[in-house]
Every structure is written in structure tokens, then in C-alpha cells.
Amino acid sequence: xxxxxxxxxxxxxxxxxxxxxxxxxxxxxxxxxxxxxxxxxxxxxxxxxxxxxxxxxxxxxxxxxxxxxxxxxxxx
Amino acid sequence: xxxxxxxxxxxxxxxxxxxxxxxxxxxxxxxxxxxxxxxxxxxxxxxxxxxxxxxxxxxxxxxxxxxxxxxxxxxxxxxxxxxxxxxxxxxxxxxxxxxxxxxxxxxxxxxxxxxxxxxxxxxxxxxxxxxxxxxxxxxxxxxxxxxxxxxxxxxxxxxxxxxxxxxxxxxxxxxxxxxxxxxxxxxxxxxxxxxxxxxxxxxxxxxxxxxxxxxxxxxxxxxxxxxxxxxxxxxxxxxxxxxxxxxxxxxxxxxxxxxxxxxxxxxxxxxxxxxxxxxxxxxxxxxxxxxxxxxxxxxxxxxxxxxxxxxxxxxxxxxxxxxxxxxxxxxxxxxxxxxxxxxxxxxxxxxxxxxxxxxxxxxxxxxxxxxxxxxxxxxxxxxxxxxxxxxxxxxxxxxxxxxxxxxxxxxxxxxxxxxxxxxxxxxxxxxxxxxxxxxxxxxxxxxxxxxxxxxxxxxxxxxxxxxxxxxxxxxxxxxxxxxxxxxxxxxxxxxxxxxxxxxxxxxxxxxxxxxxxxxxxxxxxxxxxxxxxxxxxxxxxxxxxxxxxxxxxxxxxxxxxxxxxxxxxxx
Lengths: 76, 571
Prior knowledge:
The structure holds 2 protein chains of 2 kinds.
Chain A: H1 3-29, H2 33-36, H3 45-50, H4 53-57
Chain B: H1 2-20, H2 23-35, H3 39-68, H4 75-83, H5 88-91, H6 93-121, H7 130-141, H8 158-174, H9 177-203, H10 217-225, E1 229-236, E2 239-246, H11 249-261, E3 265-270, H12 272-276, H13 279-293, H14 299-304, H15 313-350, H16 356-366, H17 372-406, H18 410-430, H19 436-475, H20 486-510, H21 524-531, H22 535-557
Antiparallel strand pairs in B: 1-2, 1-3
């Protein structure tokens, strides 16, 4: 491994590790961030609606409407 | 109380990381880095991450969230909202095609992971030679003949594929939130710890084969990270043609002696710039960034469309990106590629196919660990769980599209999508010879189409919607604003970068244009279609085209994508 190789590796691995740690720090220190941070693992509104028999009976599924409170209306 | 807050914050981070990390990090990335020669690929990869990956990731989160406020949750819906003319929805067809087609082969690889986890437990993967590991893998996936993997023994992929497919659809049908929460809280940290254990073992492997002292981990790291390459070239028909790459001081010295004895060969150092002049390398590097970050997939568009404007898309996107990069570069890349080099050498590493490298190399690493059968089984099982969370997220864009386009419920959408993806996965698993179907789909969809969609997205965001409005929209609810130097990056650099790579790739790999007097180099994937047509490659592309046509027809008939956007709701 050449000197250039060591340099590129240390800078690359170091920078992605530092970025990951910075994100952790940011999430841990920002108030209410747990409510606002999302991946792809939450229950989607159509899934929540499907799991509620009453809503299904009312024929709301697939209408593009979301269950009350699933997400909010646009800010004015 | 404080402890509770910490655990909930850690849980959120793990949820983001758990849904982001998948097979792309631990299996696809090392395969791509190996295929495109290591060092130069890594430089192109990091430039792509900064210039296109992160900016488009933020653009996609923002576009999805804004369109979602107006009840549109699928890629055709999002593009209908932003582009408005009647053809806008057809641009979004790619955002449905990409995740569904990738799902078709992704579950096949998931089933390989599950199969390897089981075979480690039964002692079937205790290999001590590269040949034995390669033979098992080839037989397991049916690489020697089409249809050979469709068997139902423990060492064939059939059982596992059916199990994985059913599991995916049960989870998506019955609701996934609880299962994924468990995975994120327990399996994800376990996977990270186990990957660190394996990393330590790989870095202390030394030279596992005494007959080849040059096949060692330090040279493996050199293959991956050295910016300059040393190659042996041979003169053929008046032109110098690369014969092989050499890595490591003693290998270079031996190659130098060989060159002095044979005047038709020479040893040459290939600089970074020369390596970076290959458009195929840039396309692959950008494609890998997009694949890992799920950018240009349609997945972020759909999930972001369920968020409220108070949610933080900036830190969500950056956290998912950083978790991906940490796992990909810091763990996946440092484990698989150096280990592969240590066992196979430079020649063996390059020709293994995108996803195959890890399956052939990691069993050899585990064979050198105490309780290797346990660690091997645990690693592949955790990888299987990580893959499940990713594959489930790939189904949601298709489900949201069918719900919107056909006005049907989620369960009906899941049933239709189940039928389509089952047919596609059966195609991939049957045409297993040389993994032709899987590799063809992975390139044309997992790299090419993703690249196209990502390019369209950044153009729509920066030029159609307006980069300043877009950044202001992204900043709503964010823990920190997107730094404003990203405005010119998003508006000028990123689209120019993507369009240049694409045009050069087409010129060089499709039309055979050459630069600097070098012989024409057509992409293997282009060769399979036009120069030496391969029936399986053509059928794979036909599968993509047929599905795209199906989605486009549904788009054409869907009232949701025909209604004009009211003036007060215009973006």
C-alpha cells in the first residue's frame, strides 16, 4: 500500500465516521428531534388505515386521504 | 428520565440506520469497487457522494414531503404535482419501475443470505480453499446452468426464496412497524458489533496462503485505496494493452523482472487522472451512491410524502446517508475487499460479479475464526434481517402507486404487487447461469435507470421548482439549514456532472467513440444487447420494458394524475 493509499483511506474512513458521529451528536442534542427524524420504518397512513376495520368499512382506503392526525395540513 | 430520553434518541437513530443499511453496503459496494479497480473508483465514489448523492437525497426528501401535503404519495403523483403537464406523470413511471424491479432480484440475494446462515449452522460452509467456497456458491445459486438453483435441498436456493418471499409479503400485508422496531433496536446494533469483530479478524489475516505471500491484507487495502495503479501491458497489433494489475512491492519487483525478460511487455504506472477518464467508472460510482442511499429509487419520494412539514428532512437524509456510508466504507468495504484480495489475489477479485464476492470470500474468513460457524451464521442472518427492512421499503412505492392509480386498498395492492414480483423473482432465479439476469437487471435498473431518475429529480428541483425555494422548503422543521453553498452545487454542478457522465458514457460505451487513440471499449452490458446479443440479457430488458409499459398504461388511466393542480396548491 502506497503513502497515497494510506492517506486516501484514512481521510475517507475518518470522514464518514466523523459524519456519522456528528449526526448522532446532533440528534442527541437537538430538542424534540426524536419526533421529527424519520427513516423508512414507520407505519404508513395507508397501513394504519387498513388495520382499522371501521375506516376500511367507510371506504376511505385508497382515496388518497390520510387518517386524521397521520400528517398535518400544509402550513398557511 | 434522562436515560429514557437517551434510549428513545438512540432508538430513532437506529431506526433510521436500520432502514437505510442493507445488502448494498455489505455486498454490492465491495463487488463494485473490485469490478472497477479499487482506488480510482473510491475517488469517483466520494466525489459523487458530495456532488450528487447528498444534494439529490435532500431534494428527493423535500419534493416528496411537499407533494405529500397535497395527497400524492407515488412517484407519478409527485412528478404530476411538480411538472403539471399531462406527460409529467410518465416521468414518474421510473420511480415505480426501479424499486419493484430491484425488489425482484433483491429478495433472491436475501434468500442467499438466509441459505448461508442455515448452511453455516449445519456445517456446510466450513471451507479451507477458495475453490471449495466458489464451487459451493456456484452450485447454490445455479451459476453453471439455468434452472439449477431451483431445488429444495438445504444447499439450494429454492426453499429459502419461497420462505423469504412469503415472509416479505406477510410482513407488508399484516403491518411491519413492530417487526422493524425490534430489528432496529436489537439486530442492527448486533450487526454493527459483529461487523466490527469480523473487521478486526480480516485486518489481522496477514497472508492466509503461504504459497502466495503477496496475497495479503495490506496489499488488499492497497488495491482498494491506492490512487495509482501499476499494470503489466503487452503490445498487441501495435498497441499496448493491459494484461494484469500488480499490487505490492515484491509483486511489482517480480513483474519488473518478467518485463525485462520479455520485450513485448512493459510495466506502467497508471495515474489517477487517466483512470478517472472512464465514464463507465463514474456511472458505476454514482450508481452505487444512489443505490446505497436509495436516491433515485422512488422510495424516498414515497416515504417523505407521508411526513408533515414540521418533520426534519435535512437531518433525516443526512443521518441515513452517514449511517450508510459508515457501514459501507468503514465496514463493508474494509471487510470484504481486502479479504477477497488476501484469498484470491488481484486477478480473482475482479471477475466475481457485483453481489457474489462476499458470498465466496466471507466463508473463508469465518473458517479462520474460533466458532466461525456461529459467527458466520449470525452475520448472514443479521444481513438477511437488514435486507428485509430494505426490501419492504422497496414495495411501498409500488403499493402507493397502485392505491392511487386504481383506487384500491392496500391489501389488494399488495396482492397485485405480490403476483408481479413473484413472476419477476422466478425469472431471476431460473436464469441463474453466470447470474446473467440478475447482473443485467442490476445494471440497467440498479444503475442506469436510477441515474436517469436522479438526474430528472435534481433538474425538477433546481430549475423547475427553483433551488432557493427548494432549500427554504427543505429547511422547514430542520435542526439545521442546508449550507447555502449547496445552492450552486444543486443548480449547476450536480446536473452538469450527471449529464456529462451520461453523455460520455453513451458516446464511449454505446457508440464506441474513443479518446486518446485507445481501442473502443464497449460496456459488457451493451455488448450483451447489441454486439453479441444474449437472449437472457434481452429478456431481462424486456421484463423491465413490459413492466414500465404496464405502469405507464395505469398512469394514463388514473384520474389522480389527470386532475389539474388547483392554483392555490401549485408548487
